[in-house]
């Protein structure tokens, strides 16, 4: 009954074909309006085929297909052949088609291929001709051959892919892209456009298969229209992905049936090869064996090899030519070169012969490989490079071999070479060596393909005898070959049999030889044997000694297979802790994992503890037990900042430790002496820059003593002389009114003492002295050009203080600015993250941030304007009090008799003034560190509390906002700590001795300025002209910082763009330092800005600095002018030109600058 039903199904399928022929031949066809009859027929036939494979029983497949072939030769002969074009690749047929399992797909496709055996044999001959042309560099002839074949049978993905590769070889990228564009312009649907595009990319010189696979996979994952079976097919087609999974293989062969018969044949061969080698697909091997028996009319050596594997027999194929490999294995290199030159081209295209040729190239160290070499002729050179010591990762060469394999499917040996390379490079240390796949696509047969049946091969061949070693393990001791080659084969045999202990002995006996490529294989064997016996000590010792070489072997690039990235116990008991550190560092270079970096830091600490030292530099004083090359590597690469930072406190200590290491190693590690010297120079520069930044901070509390002395020399020298003269006058008179007037002035400026027992009010000398002291202290404190309050204003109150503290909030977009009305702007950045909350919640958040911003700014403004001031009538809350106490005056009176001249007296007086200020400055530090920090912390806590109380959200983004506020609070507290230290004057002795080169000086000035404007990111270009290579002192550094602070501060406020362009040009001469700053400026309120600049320019011309330079807001340029114009060589100029603001400042270099060569000797 079932048979009868299926007979009806067979007749039904035949009727479908009859209907298709009738449709294609109908008179309804009009050229240019309807589809071509041949296209209708060929496309419809594929649809019927796909339908029939599930409607018919397997025993009916052959009968139906033979009948359809007969119809195509007779009734439909005029429409059964495809016309030129891309109709054979029109698209995937899936609508209305049922799926079936892989077994049924194979049975059906086998019968389809059987009926097309004549065409397939023609295709196989064509492929061989293409291979000959390509290997003979007859690229143009190969392209013409493809055109002819496509004209006869219609295009296929196979011919298309080869054509793209050949166009690239023939005419480069432009010719290849031109061809692909032409193809894609002619297709409307199907997969051809997608495949053509990605095949084109795959053939570009710069494309790597690893990145190509990532990009393709990403594109397919996001594709809106391709279902899973099409995605699987595209991964198979474009990157050669094959999974030992029935569903995957079924998807691939199902989709391929919509395309050319030649594509279907290639895919079919790949699938049955996969099944023949897979243990997980064993149940399908009987089916595959049966399928192959139906393909006897197809002359394909690949099918013959599969059949012989199933039958455990020798395939009926030509024997591999052993003359070349015999010479090579016997050590007769000269003979092997001659044998290769005489070998027929067909034999040279065998994968094993190509592999032997690659070994020969590595032995004679011959490699003419070009970096951009893409063609198949580069493959043996790539393999030779992969097996030889190289600076390039082995994956680099493997990637290129795989690329050639994907781009040139017509070259039979490339897939075998790729399989061999992949086996030795990516083999799991626990898996046996298996080279069976290598010869699957070769036209010849040899012992390399069949070591389990060595009796089928003659022992007269050295090649055969050597390979027989892999089967007998102990091998044939009579093989006439070099010991390194014999022992390599024996080691592979031992490994495959599990005799790991014997391998290390055998390889150590072998040692290194001229066969570098064998040592790479032996190294892999050695590491794998240690790994399988859990010999961590030798794994780490081997990796450390081999991995530190400049040119490394491929097993070293796979160290992640042998080392654990997180388990310290694997390294703990290694006999040399330095080697543990080296091996972990090599692992970190391979995986760049934070976990591995953490393990390395721990390993270094344990190493130091084991050696009983505290710092890596101290290890240099101990006797070396580590192999020299690894020991050098430890200090050169491992003991770097990111791994030893936790051993030291602060960046300076870290840099100095590294400096010590480099200084010692430069006398030992001569190969890298230039690197050490360059690094020491960089460290010196970094230390100088870091020191410069500290100097900037340490000189914020400053008085220009040189200027003060010059003023005193003009204004007070006469009083000082009078005082000395009057000491000898013994005339009594009352000067009480004069004393009271002087003391009143002192008290107004911060003096607190009203009793002056040591002063004689009847002495004119005392009156003159106290008057001199009062004027000197007033100038010290209040000079508008060089006094303490001038520098307080310029370097602390003028943006620096508020900018530094506000910086973390601005950088985190947690604070906004206020409009001229005093209302703060809405924080759009924060609200945009919380847009999914209710309008009420957003309103509350906005209000809380505005209140916080106002309170925060008010707190800082109040601190700056009220407390960071010199105490006096105008600033009663000022924390900086200046008391001229009785003992001070007494001390200074005594010093007038001790010093030799007036200048020395001024130095003493200034020192005494600074001593008097030590307690007030300490009070400022305490106020910032305690009062202000506490007030700021309360503001942050209030903001967080109010937000949580008002919003009551468990939203993730809201939670992240709270964390951001907390983190920002910590950052602000840290900046307050830095600001507090500004009010110190410790360690000032070394400041005057510090020097900087011109580039360092400018970098320090800009970096220190931007630290106070963290949300400001100008695009700065720098140009430094210092022809005499002069080093500059700290006075120049501080001045340049002041100029950049004013310049960048003005740009921040007035440029009108987020990332304004700023050009900074400096020029140094023997006497002057000139700086030119050119920046963007917005045209908004431009006339108001011009008027303001004119006003400042007039004040400068009239030298009306007066007390304005001690105030903040609009006084920056005046403050720069006040310093620059103290010397006739100084100058300042500024103006607006088009859309730019230009500032030119020249400063007299007060200290004689030092040429660099004198400093460095």
Q: Into which percentage range does the β-strand content fall?
A: under 5%
Low-confidence residue ranges: 1-5, 750-757, 1151-1161
> Which percent bin holds the helix content?
55-70%
Terminal residue distance: 108 Å
| Total tally of structural domains | 6
Principal-axis shape equals elongated
* Biggest sheet descriptor: 5 strands, mixed
Gyration radius from CA atoms, angstroms? 43 Å
Total helical segments:
50
What oligomeric assembly is this protein in?
A: single chain
> How many strand segments?
8
Describe this structure as you would to a colleague.
There is one protein chain. The chain is mainly alpha-helical and 1161 residues long. The chain folds into 6 domains: 82 residues, no CATH class; 197 residues, no CATH class; 240 residues, no CATH class; 96 residues, no CATH class; 162 residues, no CATH class; 166 residues, Heat Shock Protein 90, CATH 3.30.565. It has 50 helices and 8 strands.
């Amino acid at each position: 009954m079932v048979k009868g039903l299926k007979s009806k199904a067979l007749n039904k399928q035949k009727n479908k074909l009859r209907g298709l022929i009738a449709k294609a031949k109908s008179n309804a066809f009009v050229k240019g309006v309807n589809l071509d009859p041949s296209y209708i027929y060929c496309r419809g036939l594929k649809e019927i085929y796909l339908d029939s494979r599930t409607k018919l029983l397997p025993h009916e497949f052959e009968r139906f297909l033979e009948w359809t072939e007969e119809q195509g030769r007779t009734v439909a002969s005029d429409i059964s052949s495809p016309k030129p074009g891309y109709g054979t690749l029109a698209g995937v047929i899936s609508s209305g088609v049922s799926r079936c399992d892989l077994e049924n797909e194979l049975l059906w496709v086998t019968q389809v291929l059987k009926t097309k055996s004549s065409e397939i044999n023609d295709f196989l001959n064509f492929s061989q001709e293409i291979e000959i042309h390509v290997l003979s560099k007859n690229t143009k002839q190969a392209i013409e051959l493809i055109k002819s074949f496509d004209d006869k049978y219609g295009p296929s993905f196979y011919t298309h892919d080869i054509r793209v590769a050949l166009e690239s070889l023939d005419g480069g990228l432009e010719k290849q892209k031109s061809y692909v564009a032409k193809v894609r312009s002619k297709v409307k649907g199907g997969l051809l456009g997608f495949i053509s595009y990605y095949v084109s990319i795959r053939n570009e010189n710069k494309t790597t298969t690893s990145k190509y696979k990532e990009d393709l996979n990403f594109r397919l994952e996001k594709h809106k229209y391709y279902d899973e079976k099409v995605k699987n097919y595209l991964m198979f087609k474009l990157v050669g992905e094959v999974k030992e999974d029935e569903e995957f293989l079924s998807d691939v062969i199902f989709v391929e049936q919509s395309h050319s018969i030649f594509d279907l044949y290639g895919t079919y061969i790949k699938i049955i090869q996969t099944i023949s080698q897979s243990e997980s697909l064993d149940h399908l091997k009987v089916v595959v064996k049966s399928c192959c028996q139906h393909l006897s009319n197809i002359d394909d050596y690949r099918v013959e090899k599969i059949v012989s594997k199933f039958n455990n027999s020798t395939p009926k194929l030509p024997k591999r030519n052993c003359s070349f490999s015999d010479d090579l294995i016997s050590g007769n290199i000269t003979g092997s070169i001659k044998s290769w030159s005489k070998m027929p081209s067909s034999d040279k295209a065998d994968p094993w012969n190509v592999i032997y040729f690659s070994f020969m190239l590595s032995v004679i160290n011959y490699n003419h490989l070009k970096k951009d070499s893409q063609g198949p002729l580069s493959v043996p050179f790539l393999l030779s490079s992969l097996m030889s010591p190289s600076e390039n990762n082995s994956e680099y060469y493997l990637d290129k071999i795989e690329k050639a394999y994907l781009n040139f499917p017509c070259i039979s040996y490339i897939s075998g070479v790729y399989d061999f390379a992949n086996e030795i490079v990516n083999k799991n240390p626990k898996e046996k060596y298996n080279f069976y796949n290598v010869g699957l696509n070769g036209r010849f047969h040899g012992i390399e393909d069949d070591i389990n049946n060595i009796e089928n091969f003659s022992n007269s061949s050295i090649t055969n005898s050597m390979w027989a070693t892999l089967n007998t393990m102990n091998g044939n001791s009579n093989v006439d070959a070099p010991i390194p080659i014999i022992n390599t084969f024996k080691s592979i045999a031992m490994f495959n049999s599990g005799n790991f202990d014997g391998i290390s002995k055998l390889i150590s006996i072998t040692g290194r030889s001229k066969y570098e490529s064998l040592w790479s294989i032996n190294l892999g064997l050695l590491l794998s044997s240690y790994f399988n016996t859990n010999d961590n000590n030798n794994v780490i010792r081997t990796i450390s000694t081999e991995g530190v070489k400049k040119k490394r072997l491929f097993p070293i690039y796979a160290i992640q297979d042998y080392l654990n990235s997180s388990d310290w116990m694997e390294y703990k008991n290694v006999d040399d802790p330095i080697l543990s550190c080296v091996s972990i560092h090599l692992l970190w270079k391979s995986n760049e994992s934070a976990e591995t970096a953490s393990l390395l830091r721990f390993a270094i600490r344990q190493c130091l503890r084991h050696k009983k030292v505290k710092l890596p530099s101290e290890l240099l004083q101990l006797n070396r037990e580590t192999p020299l090359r690894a020991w050098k590597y430890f200090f050169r690469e491992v003991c770097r900042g990111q791994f030893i930072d936790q051993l030291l406190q602060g960046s300076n200590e870290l840099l100095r430790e590294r400096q010590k290491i480099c200084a010692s190693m430069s006398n030992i590690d001569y190969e890298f002496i230039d690197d050490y010297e360059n690094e020491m120079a960089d460290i010196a520069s970094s230390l100088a820059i870091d020191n410069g930044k500290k100097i900037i901070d340490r000189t914020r509390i400053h008085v220009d003593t040189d200027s003060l002395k010059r003023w005193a020399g003009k204004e007070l020298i006469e009083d000082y002389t009078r005082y000395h003269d009057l000491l000898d006058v013994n005339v009594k008179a009352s000067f009480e009114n004069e004393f009271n007037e002087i003391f009143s002035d002192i008290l107004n400026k911060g003096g607190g003492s009203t009793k002056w027992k040591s002063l004689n009010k009847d002495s004119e000398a005392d009156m003159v002295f106290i008057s001199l002291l009062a004027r000197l202290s007033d100038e010290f404190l209040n000079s508008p050009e060089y006094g303490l309050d001038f520098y307080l204003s310029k370097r602390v109150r003028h943006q620096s203080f508020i900018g530094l503290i506000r910086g973390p909030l601005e950088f985190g977009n947690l604070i906004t600015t206020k409009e001229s009305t005093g209302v703060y702007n809405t924080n759009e950045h924060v609200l945009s993250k919380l847009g999914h909350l209710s309008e009420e919640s957003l309103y509350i958040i906005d209000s809380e941030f505005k209140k916080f911003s106002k309170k925060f700014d008010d707190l800082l403004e109040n601190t700056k304007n009220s407390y960071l001031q010199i105490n006096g009538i105008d600033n009663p809350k000022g924390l900086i009090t200046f008391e001229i106490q009785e003992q001070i005056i007494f001390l200074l009176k005594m010093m007038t008799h001790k010093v030799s001249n007036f200048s020395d007296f001024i130095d003493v007086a200034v020192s005494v003034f600074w001593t008097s200020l030590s307690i007030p400055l300490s009070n400022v530090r305490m106020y910032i560190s305690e009062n202000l920090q506490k007030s700021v912390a309360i503001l942050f806590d209030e903001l967080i509390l109010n937000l949580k109380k008002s919003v009551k959200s468990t939203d993730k983004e809201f939670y992240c906002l709270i964390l951001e506020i907390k983190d920002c609070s910590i950052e602000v507290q840290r900046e307050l700590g830095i600001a507090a230290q500004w009010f110190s004057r410790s360690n000032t002795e070394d400041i005057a001795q510090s020097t900087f080169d011109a580039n360092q000086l400018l970098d320090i000035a800009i970096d220190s300025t931007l630290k106070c404007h963290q949300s400001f990111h100008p695009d700065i270009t720098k140009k430094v002209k210092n022809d005499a290579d002069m080093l500059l002192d700290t006075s120049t550094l501080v001045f340049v910082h002041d100029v950049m602070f004013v310049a960048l501060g003005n740009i921040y406020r007035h440029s009108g763009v987020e990332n304004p362009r700023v050009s900074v040009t400096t020029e140094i001469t023997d006497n002057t330092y000139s700086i030119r700053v050119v920046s963007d400026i917005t045209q908004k309120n431009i006339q108001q800005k011009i008027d303001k600049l004119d006003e400042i320019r007039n004040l400068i011309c009239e030298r009306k600095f007066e007390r304005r330079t001690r105030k903040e807001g609009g006084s920056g340029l005046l403050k720069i002018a006040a310093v620059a114009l103290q010397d006739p060589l100084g100058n300042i100029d500024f103006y607006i030109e088009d859309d730019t603001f230009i500032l030119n400042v020249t400063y007299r270099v007060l200290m004689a600058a030092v040429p660099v060569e004198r400093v460095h000797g």
